[in-house]
Amino acid sequence: MAHDAPQATGPSKLVIRNIGLILSGALEKPILDGDTIVAENGKITAIGRFKDLNTEGATTIVDANGTTVTPGLIDSHVHPVAGDWTPRQNQINWIDSSLHGGITTMISAGEVHMPGRPRDVVGLKAMAVFAQRAFWTLRPGGVKVHAGAPVIECEMVEEDFKEMAANGVKLLGEVGLGGVKDGPTARKMVGWARKYGIQSTIHTGGPSIPGSGLIDKDVVLEADTDVVGHINGGHTALPDDQIRCICEGCKRGLEIVHNGNERSALYTLRIAREMGDLHRVILGTDGPAGSGVQPLGILRMVSMLSSIGELPAELAFCLATGNTARMRQLDCGLIEVGRAADFVIMDKAQHSPGKTILESVQLGDLPGIGMTIIDGIVRTQRSRNTPPAGRVPEVVAK
Predict the structure, then answer these.
(1) CA angle at residue 180 from 162 to 189, to 5 degrees?
(2) How do beta strands 103-108 and 73-78 pair?
(3) What is the C-alpha separation between 180 and 196, in angstroms, rounded?
(4) How would you class 14 by CB atoms within 10 Å of its CB: exposed for 0-12, middle for 13-18, buried for 19 or more?
(5) Is the model's pLDDT at 151 over the cut of 80?
(6) CA-CA distance, 388 to 383, in Å (whole number)?
(7) What angle do CA 201, 217, 329 make, to 5 degrees?
(8) Which is it for strands 281-284 and 253-257: parallel, antiparallel or unpaired?
(9) Which cofactors go with this protein (predicted)?
């Protein structure tokens, strides 16, 4: 079972050189000009051409060998429980496996699979604080798991939200997975959460686990959560007219997940592009779930939305990085000075018919991951889960 990853013990300077392509994660400028990235003490300090940057004093040098560097991928919708184990499938090391799929940050949509999960107000608040503390301390493989997302119940009052926020809780679990399933109650509690800086997500579509139920467009729109969780269902999606109504009726985040309805995912993408609202689309897996764990779930979503959704690959990667970082107010997800030095180094898979990594993704192939880096520290090298990359980076000095 994966435990705490090593952290930097002193001043550090990472230099990634000989980069073939830098994908920024930002829709407004998805490709950056440069072949080198410098990070000091876990933060990006420079991006550009090797000859123009100060690379002296590096504690780690990575030769990208002409491959592609992207921001670390963000899974906007996971259901962690305890450490790197999920009782839903009785599987261990699922977070570490996701790291091998390029995931460097995860956002909890509720620790709903906890055996004996408390429904009383005291218990659910205690569990939220525990999960927030435990996962921020643990970091399996170095992955940043933002957890402690309570599932709200009808007995809660404003003071409960104030108390949770004061104790570090910054997320709500999916509204609708607990006793609160109606619009007026949800809107009131979402308002309390927002007042105290807690971000909210709502279950959308048909029931996905025992205890959940149908949440339709009327409840979604009235609740007005910050993120419309799995708008393509988890697994059962709403009818197209309701999805369109949600897209047009609010300006909140539109989350598409791997464990949802794929046709509805493509429909949501099309509506968002028609509206000029691609910046609202973020990606999650909604795992672990009944369908299992998806270590490559975000990569598969990027590939599907690019190939079948006819979205340029460099933009598809933004949905899994910069869009989510901005929506979730994270310091990662974008390759820009001052951001966390979280990267995935990848290349087109061996024998892909695509001539470049972008072309191969637009043809529906998954890239091969050669390295993941979190907070400026190399966490994995050649992925054990993706297809082998055509070229791989290497640590040449440390």
Answers:
(1) 30
(2) parallel
(3) 19
(4) buried
(5) yes
(6) 8
(7) 25
(8) parallel
(9) Zn(2+)
Q: Which two tokens stand for residue 233?
A: 């269902």
Q: Please say if the pLDDT value at position 1 is more than 50.
A: no
Query: How far, rounded to the nearest angstrom, does the alpha carbon of residue 181 sit from its chain's CA centroid?
Result: 25
Phi, psi values for residue 90, rounded to 5°:
50, 50
Structure tokens at 360: 């191969």
Peptide bond preceding 288: is omega within 30 degrees of 0, i.e. cis?
yes
pTM: 0.97
**What's the CA gap between 232 and 227, in Å, rounded?**
13
Please state, in angstroms and rounded to a whole number, the distance separating the CA atoms of residues 374 and 7: 10
pLDDT, tens digit (0-9, with 9 covering 90-100), for 88-115: 889 999 999 999 999 999 999 999 999 9
Cis peptide before 235 (omega within 30 of 0): yes
Residue 183: CB atoms within 10 A of its CB come to 17
User: If 0-12 CB within 10 Å is exposed, 13-18 middle and 19+ buried, where does residue 170 land?
Assistant: buried
Q: Count CB-CB contacts under 10 A for residue 121.
A: 16
CA 86, 304, 216: angle at the middle one, nearest 5? 65
- Taking residues 122-145, what's their average pLDDT? 97
Q: Strand, helix or coil at 241?
A: helix
Q: How far is CA 203 from the centre of its chain?
A: 17
> Which stretches within the chain are classed as H helix?
94-99, 121-138, 158-166, 183-195, 217-223, 240-249, 262-274, 297-307, 313-319, 322-328, 357-362
Please check whether residue 301 is in contact with residue 262, taking contact to mean a CB–CB distance below 8 angstroms.
no
Distances (CA, A) of 142 to 73, 85, 132, 201: 13, 15, 16, 25
**Residue 48 corresponds to which tokens in the numbers above?**
């550009």
> Looking at the DSSP assignment, which residues form a beta bridge with residue 44?
39
Q: Residue type for 193, please? A: A
Cα distance from N-terminal residue to C-terminal residue, the chain: 27
Q: Are strands 36-40 and 31-32 parallel, antiparallel or unpaired?
A: unpaired
Listed residue (126, 132, 111, 200) closest to 163, CA to CA:
126
Residue with tokens 């977070």: 95
Q: Is 196 exposed, middle or buried (0-12, 13-18, 19+ CB in 10 A)?
A: middle
Number of other CB atoms surrounding residue 66 within 10 Å: 14
Q: Give the CA count within 13 Å in the CB-facing half-sphere of 40.
A: 10
Query: Is the confidence at residue 5, as pLDDT, over 50?
Result: yes
Token pair for residue 256? 């598409």
